[in-house]
Write a structure and sequence with these properties.
The chain has 279 residues and is an alpha+beta fold. The chain is built from nine helices and nine strands. Helix 2 packs across helix 5, helix 2 crosses helix 7 and helix 6 packs antiparallel against helix 7. The protein starts with a helix and ends in a 6-residue tail after the last strand.
């Protein structure tokens, strides 16, 4: 098993450095951004409300949509995919357990390419392909000179231990850690007074049933003045993001989305004026 962790060292240090660069950069991006957004780590976005080693509530649903064995064990595959990105990314940065980490990342990216992005065309597959190409050299060569695997195997410190094997087996029980989601309702009250020729008022947003691609129509309470919509979202997050539209045109162009905190109650009321952001 020690050969699994012992890196292959190239003749010159700069060759190892050149191969370490994509490994470290891609590992950092996976751990700090892509993985941390859906797998609970100390630096995960606070608004995502993720517990430690907890996978985001929506990810098992996405995985189940792949069908087959993924639909049979969505929690397991969602947790393993998020773990591969977040923890596997950290291991790639450190050059620790490099080959196992690269294997997990490679498997995750292959699934993303062919089960999630394949139908959307080659362009949408490029991000996953990029991470795959960065992981493959690490899968074959290990960490090279620039990683903890090199230091530990050189000093004889990296040996298989029963405790580590037991810990790895226990990790298979963790995929039950899925973020709890609840129904949160927001009552939107939008003032559109002062805007002429209002034919349709809508809201778009990040979380289902809202979408950034189409409007959910608000109903008039006072014609050309006050509009209303009631939206219930099944979520584990603390915050959602929305923007309003009039006749299909966005408000607050070039500005940040409106951020709405759900709070502890199941229902919140959000009052706003079109194209005006109140701090």
């Amino acid at each position: 098993m020690r050969h699994l962790f012992r890196p292959l060292v190239l003749p010159n240090w700069w060759q190892d450095a050149l191969l370490a660069l994509p490994r470290i950069v891609c590992g950092y991006l996976l751990a700090s951004n892509f993985g941390a957004a859906k797998f609970g780590l100390p630096w995960s976005p606070p608004d995502n409300n993720l517990g430690l080693f907890e996978v985001a509530f929506w990810f098992p649903q996405d995985v189940a949509a792949y069908g087959g064995i993924f639909a049979m064990f969505p929690n397991f595959f969602a947790w393993m995919g998020a773990f591969s990105e977040a923890i596997g990314g950290m291991l790639l940065v450190l050059g620790l357990l490099t080959r196992p980490a690269a294997f997990l990342v490679s498997c995750t990216m292959l699934v993303a390419m062919f089960m999630q992005q394949f139908q959307e065309g080659l362009w949408n597959m490029l991000p996953a392909m990029g991470f795959l190409w960065a992981a493959l050299p690490a899968l074959v060569l290990g960490s090279g000179r620039f990683g903890l695997d090199y230091l530990l195997t050189k000093s004889g410190g990296l040996r298989p231990r029963p405790g580590l094997v037991a810990l790895a087996l226990a990790a298979l029980l963790l995929p039950g850690c899925v973020q709890q989601a609840h129904d949160k309702t927001v009552v939107y009250l939008l003032d559109v007074s002062g805007h002429p020729d209002v034919q349709q008022v809508g809201v778009r947003g990040r979380d289902k049933p809202l979408s950034w691609d189409y409007d959910l129509q608000l109903t008039p309470i006072k014609k050309d003045s006050l509009y209303r919509a009631v939206v219930t979202t099944h979520t584990g997050y603390k915050v959602t993001e929305v923007k309003f539209t009039i006749n299909g045109d966005y408000e607050l162009k070039g500005k940040e989305n409106r951020r709405i905190e759900f709070g502890s109650a199941d229902t919140a009321v959000y009052r706003a004026r079109f194209d005006v952001m109140v701090p």
